[in-house]
Amino acid sequence: MSFREPDATDESQQSVLALARERMRTRHLSLRTEQAYLRWMCRFAEFHGRPLRTLGPAEVEAFLTHLATQCHVGAATQNQALQALLFLYRHVLGVELPWLGNVTRASQAKRLPVVLSRAEVRSLLAQLEGTSWLIASLLYGSGLRLMEGMRLRVKDLVLERGELIVREGKGGKDRVTMLPGALDTPLRAHLSRLRAWFEEERRREQPGVSLPYALARKYPHAGAQWGWQYLFPAPTLCRDPYLGVLVRHHLYAKRLQRAVQQAVRRASLTQAASCHTLRHSFATHLLEDGYDIRTVQELLGHSDLKTTMIYTHVMAKGARGVMSPLDRGSVFGRAPAVRRKSAPSLGPGTPAADTEPAVDGEDHDEHGQRDQEHPGELDDGEGE
Length: 384
What we know:
By secondary structure, the chain is mainly α. It has helices at 11-26, 31-48, 57-69, 75-92, 118-126, 130-142, 146-150, 184-203, 215-218, 253-266, 275-288, 293-300, 305-309, and strands spanning 157-158, 163-166, 175-178, 233-239, 246-250.
């Protein structure tokens, strides 16, 4: 989807946005970050109805408070707006904002990641086919984020060593992760088909693929080389947002997201799973298999170990791996005793009524004390 320029009729505001775009590209911010920051800057100006150069700290506080109290945005959305405005004032207008102490902050919910069981993952992948199945299998088998999987190039696969190199991941970091052995044959078959298609594209003299930063100017023919080809190329050409020339980009991410959502429904999964759920499941299942948490941290590309440790709260061993006393057999480990009681006599010759079972010690614990708690209420561990 092409990015539509935010409306800005004021010439001074147009110049501010153009300067902001130049400064962001100088710092090599991603295109998505650039687009999001420009939208927040325009929304900030529209909220106050004044040019950006005339707005100060009081207007910033009012706008951020409006997002939290009136628009009810989440903490991440409010923080993104704050970062966009900080960039505007610090790097574009050359103004250092003071401490914004009067901003009403959006509350930050502490949520656990959605994790599928191994059987649920198999059921989900079984509902996919073709390229969608291969990408989803890489997301789960290698612990990739959605865009990391989409941006894979042929040179990033090291099939002989079973490795996959993630370039320009979150935070602009590269890392090496595993390449599942189960995908070796499907990947080789995919590369064979891709190579035939690539040779046909070269014969037809079609444009090459998009390249990061200024590599297209430094190496003009790199986009038409085999190693730089996207592993999952888009079926149509698009215009490069930086150079303005026709190029071939990677597959549109929405295509896989729709396919996964349809697979979730067909597999009748109860959890609201998404593409990122496969990455969560990758980390959790590795920890359940006994792998060191530092190893999992490196495979995921986390800077802070605390980010990886959240998966220890959703492992299949239960809450923190603690066994409930109810599961130790002290309550349900023996068959319930049957107490017989006689019905009142209805006269001579009348048989006694059928006996009814009764659980000996009903509503009592093993020491004969009556249980005063509600056995169905479990601590959900919220906030830990």
